[in-house]
C-alpha cells in the first residue's frame, strides 16, 4: 500500500465518527485502488495515477465532512438571522453602558477624570468583543447540535411601519428636545450658579444687562424650536413649511448671538476683565470663531432639512 | 452574455437531485462505488467521486440501499443494492421527475402558442 493513499485515508478518517471509521477506511481504500487501476489500465504510471486520483477526491477534511454529514459553516441559514438580530441588539446598548460606567468609576472612585474617556472606550470595546465572541460561540454550538430554538414563526404582524413615511424617528425628536431643554436651562444656570472666581465673588458668564431684552428673545426662540420638533414629529417628515420655520428660527438665534458677540456685548464685562487673554482681543477671536461655527451649523441644518423635504416630495 | 459561473451553478442545481435517482435505478443491479461511478458516467450522469461515495453511505443509512461486502475477489469491495424502501422512494421520485417534465413541456407549449 502506497504511502500517499495511507496518508490520505488517515487524514480523512481523523474527523469521521469512530464507530464507522474502520468500514469507511476499507471502502475508501478499495475505491481509491479501483480508481488508480482504472487509470493505470489506460496506460498511466502508478505514481501519477495515485496523485491524480487523490487530487480528484479533494481535501480530505471536506470528504470527511461529507461522510459525517457535517456542516462546513459556522452559523447556517437556520440560525443566522436570529444570531444577527441578537448581536445587533446587544451591541447597541451594552458596550455603551459598560463604557460609561467604567468611565464614571474611573473618574469618581479612582479619582482620575483625565483617564476616564480612555478607560471608558477600552471597556466598551472589550465588552463588544466579548459579546460577539460568546454569542457566536453559543450559536456555533447550536448549529452543530442541531438544537431547535422553538422561536415563534415570522408573521406579517411583525412588519415594521413603512420606514419611508416616517423620516423623523421618536429617538431623534427626544434627543433634540432634551438638548434644547439643556440649552434653555443653561441661561438661568449660568446666572444663578455662576462660576466662582478666586476671591469668592460670583460672576455670570453672560452680561446680566441682556436679561432686559435679548436673553428672553433667545429663550423664546429655543422654546419655539421645541414646538418645531413636536410639529415635525407629528407630521412624521420634513415639509417645506417646516424647513422655512426651521431656517427662520435658526437665523433668529444665530444673528442676535453673533451680533452681540461681535459688538462685545454678550459676555459679562466683569468676567472679561478677569482674564488677560479675553481682555486683550480674545473676545474678538472668540467671536469670529463662534460666527464661523454658527454659520456652518445654520447652513448644514438648512441643507439637511431641505434635502429630506425634497426627497419626500420627489 | 451569461457568465459561465452562473450557468454552472444553475446546471448544478438542476442535476443535484438526479444523482440520487440515477443511483437508485442503477443499483437495482448490485455494484460497488467505483463501478457505479463508471456506469453513471457512461449513461450521462457525470458524478464526482467525492460526492458519490459519501452519498452511497448516506442512502444506506437512510435505508434506501443495502450493502454487502464481497470478499471473493482479490480486493474486498462493498456492494450496494437498492432496498425495498429504496424502490418505494424511487417510484415517487420517478413520478415527480415525469411530472416535472410534463409540466415543463406544457409550459413551453403554452408560451409558444
Give a written overview of the molecule.
The complex is a heterodimer of chains A (314) and B (113). By secondary structure, chain A is mostly helical. Chain A is built from eleven helices and two strands, in the order αααααααββαααα. Chain A folds into three domains: 3-68, no CATH class; 77-151; 170-313, no CATH class. Chain A has helices at residues 3-13, 21-41, 46-57, 60-68, 77-108, 116-145, 170-192, 214-235, 240-262, 269-274, 276-313; strands spanning 195-196, 202-203. Chain A has a two-stranded antiparallel sheet. In chain A, helix 2 crosses helix 3 (46-57). Chain A is elongated. Chain B has 113 residues and is an alpha+beta fold. Chain B has a single domain, classed as Winged helix-like DNA-binding domain superfamily/Winged helix DNA-binding domain (Arc Repressor Mutant, subunit A, Orthogonal Bundle). Chain B has five helices and three strands; from the N terminus they run ααβααββα. A three-stranded antiparallel β-sheet of chain B has the order 1-3-2. Chain A binds chain B through residues 23-24, 26-28, 30-31, 33-35, 38, 56-58, 62-63, 66-67, 69, and chain B through 32-35, 38, 48-51, 53-54, 57-58, 75-78.
Outline of chain A, from the CA principal axes? Answer: elongated
Gyration radius of chain A, in Å = 35 Å
Percent of residues in helices of chain B: 55-70%
Helix content of chain A: over 70%
> What is the N-to-C order of secondary-structure elements of chain A (H for helix, E for strand)?
HHHHHHHEEHHHH
Task: Give the mean pLDDT of chain A.
Answer: 85
CATH class of chain B: Mainly Alpha
User: What are the secondary-structure elements of chain B, in order, as H or E?
Assistant: HHEHHEEH
Q: What's the end-to-end separation of chain A, in Å? A: 75 Å
Q: Assembly type of the shown chains? A: heterodimer
Overall radius of gyration of chain B: 17 Å
Strand line-up across the major sheet of chain B: 1-3-2
Ranges of chain B where pLDDT stays below 50 over 5 or more residues in a row are: none
The structure class of chain A reads: mainly alpha
Please count the helical segments of chain B. 5
